[in-house]
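Friendly challenge for the regulars: who can give me the structure tokens for this chain first? No prize, just bragging rights.
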Amino acid sequence: MKVKYIYQQFISHISIIIVAFLILSLVFTQYVETLVYKNKTEELISYGENILRDLDRGSERPDQVINQYARVLFGRDIQFSVFDENIQLLNPIRWRGPAIEFTEKEWRKLTNGEPIVMKYDLERYDRAVTLVALPYLDQGRFVGGILLTSPISGTREMIGEINKYLFYTVLIALAVSFLLSWVLSRIHVKRIKKLQEATSMVSAGDYTVKVPPSDFDEIGELANDFNSMVSKLNESKSEIESLEYRRRQFMSDVSHELRTPLTTISGVIEGLKNDMIPEAEKERGIHLVSQETKRLIRLVNENLDYDKIRSNQVQLFKEDIDLLEVLEIIKDQLELQAEERNNQIEITAEGTAMVHADYDRLVQILINITKNSIQFTENGTIWLRGKLDGNKTLIEIEDTGIGIESEEIEKIWHRFYKADISRTSNPFGEFGLGLSIVKQLVQMHDGKIHVESEHGKGTKFVIELPFR
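First reply, four minutes later:
Bragging rights claimed.
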């Protein structure tokens, strides 16, 4: 069975209030009733002790003392009887009280000097009364006592009046609580409805929806978390769309880039097979096939490297490496490529500078970045710098090339991103994987890499690697 939230809230609030007021009313009634009867018995005990005290003084005759008190107490609807050890009564004038009736147990208590107090007696007399019997002792010997009774009808009426006003108070409180519960439930239901509608819109694919934020209560915190979730979903959606675009672009580039060398290889092989290539051109054709084959292998390996890194299948073997020696090796390997674009590679490094890294992966990082600098620099200079800075090694690769637009700097680390779609002539990292691999490898070394670039003035890559 489905029960609406507003009814659940209302029922729970009203139930709690009703139970609380019932308990409060019962406790309060019991407290007032106990207090009233306590005051009544204390009043009777006080009168009884005063009567016995005046009788004990003997300054007046006993009947005079009893009659004086009778005038006062009868007006307050209090009856009393004085009796001796044989329960012989010495009654005041105009006495209307019942005969004295004590149980054996009560009489034993009196004779032992203990008072008898009954807050309300419903069985002994023809009406409910409060009863007090006090013993009269002469030098420790029981010689009689006094019995005082007072009807409890007035007390009952007073307690009834108190209960009536308490009942009215409960009704007013319930009315107020009903109104407050209804208002609060409506407010909460309205806020929950907004969250429900927003959730439905998100499930339908709308990641721009927002709900009013609040820090007032848990629903407000839920609204804040919902807005944060939607923002992240929207970012993820944008990233997925961007990745999907780059993936399609990547597939297009792959098709184009692989088709060209494969066509070249196929054409040369067919020419050699059918003797369509002159003898003088055969060596050049074989060299072309070899270069195109190496190019295809390099493209495939680059993709495999990236997937291995992403799946944590690459194991590093770190060691202390002479940084100047590594930079000189990079220069030796790429100097011919640099000369083809009229570039110079210059090294600046401290002779004692060391780096703690996996040798093969460090060379892969530096070659990728340096090739990138060579590709986008012409008639310029590429600097390879290295030094120890405290507990870390700094490596800088700077060029005087065309630079990178400021809004594209963070995008260059994406897997399929290429800052300029026309750069398909780049023989190194054709699909925009080179720098993505570089960043992954640097992070595997617990290092950092960042780029400083200004369009038209060059680019500088800065790598920080911890030195043990």
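The longest strand covers residues 141-151. The first helix runs from residue 5 to 57. Your move, everyone else.
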